[in-house]
Amino acid sequence: MLRKSSRLQSTGYYNSTDEPVISYKETLYRVFKRRRFHFRNGEELHLEHDLEYDICTSDAEPGFGSTKRKTFLLILLLFSFGLLFSLAIFTSIPSVIMTNIFTTSTKEARKQLEELQSELARLKEKFDFLVPVADRLPNFALESLGARIIYDKTSESYPPDKPLLQIFGFTLSCPNQRPGISPRILLEGRAPMLPGQCWAFGGSQGQVSIELAQYITISHVSLGHIPQMLSPDLTVSSAPRTFSVFGNQHTEDPVIYLGTFQYDPNGGPLQTFKIAQSNISVVKYVTLRIHDNWGNSQYSCIYSFRVHGKLAWHEH
């Protein structure tokens, strides 16, 4: 026998024969109520489920299943939106940020590098002024090493070392006449260069020829003159301007052209010039030929001339 619900019985759900009265025009929903535990005589445990049939009209609100579907769709939509947003966050935006950071860092690094290069150039100029390149290269035009002047290929010193007066066969010279300084002073490697301690020759054109201490593969030459601030007349008009360098292995050999250079009166006192790669040769004799100076028509002065390179094997 079916168990009847007391609530449905009070509402007239059952007929006289205790059978449920069901209308097919109504919609039946099954609702599970809470579980109830009944104890009989303190021994037996019975678990009962009350089934209730609620009658709902056709215009009733949607049930639990429809709400669940909407909730699921809403959650799915939110999840999809969150996923797309996360992808945007972790792909596009960081890449833009990193690109900006990298670009900014590159610009700052480039700016710092340019500043360091400028500072390095300034320090190099100061260092080259205090310690010229010529002082960091071996000099093979030193008398102390065995170099010597070839006088028959060298211009006459200024003023000329000649007597001014001859009387009855006697040679007299003017007591105030200053004898010319020998070109050997160029082989002494003097440092620092002081006013008047130079070799001078008359006019603006002249040359000096030197036999080096060893056979070398020539790489550089250095030419020196005092700066304007140390000059007694505050000019460097007697300084060489354009000059050429020649060399050979033996005095009877034809000379080899090594290069033409220009001395800068506004540069350092001792300036070094590099021989072009195509002109580098093994030499034992070097000739310095001055083509002009910076304006002095009476004489030209050379305070220092150095020849640099590496020792070279040579068969005599």
Mind explaining what this structure looks like?
The chain is rod-shaped. It has 2 helices and 15 strands. Strands 5, 9, 10, 11, 12, 13 and 15 form a 7-stranded antiparallel beta sheet that branches. Strands 1-4 form a two-stranded antiparallel ribbon. The protein has 316 residues and is an alpha+beta fold. It has helices spanning 6-10, 64-130; strands at residues 27-32, 36-40, 44-48, 51-56, 148-149, 165-167, 170-172, 199-202, 206-224, 242-248, 256-262, 270-274, 282-290, 299-302, 304-311. The model is unreliable at 44-64 and 172-177 (pLDDT under 50). Helix content is 23%, strand content 29%. Strand 2 (36-40) and strand 3 form a beta hairpin.
Question: Brief overview, please?
Answer:
By secondary structure, the chain is of the alpha+beta class.
Give short descriptive properties of this protein.
316 residues, two-stranded antiparallel sheet, 23% helix, 29% strand, rod-shaped
Helix and strand layout, with pairings?
Layout: H1 6-10, E1 27-32, E2 36-40, E3 44-48, E4 51-56, H2 64-130, E5 148-149, E6 165-167, E7 170-172, E8 199-202, E9 206-224, E10 242-248, E11 256-262, E12 270-274, E13 282-290, E14 299-302, E15 304-311
Antiparallel strand pairs: 1-4, 2-3, 5-9, 6-7, 8-14, 9-12, 9-13, 9-15, 10-11, 10-13
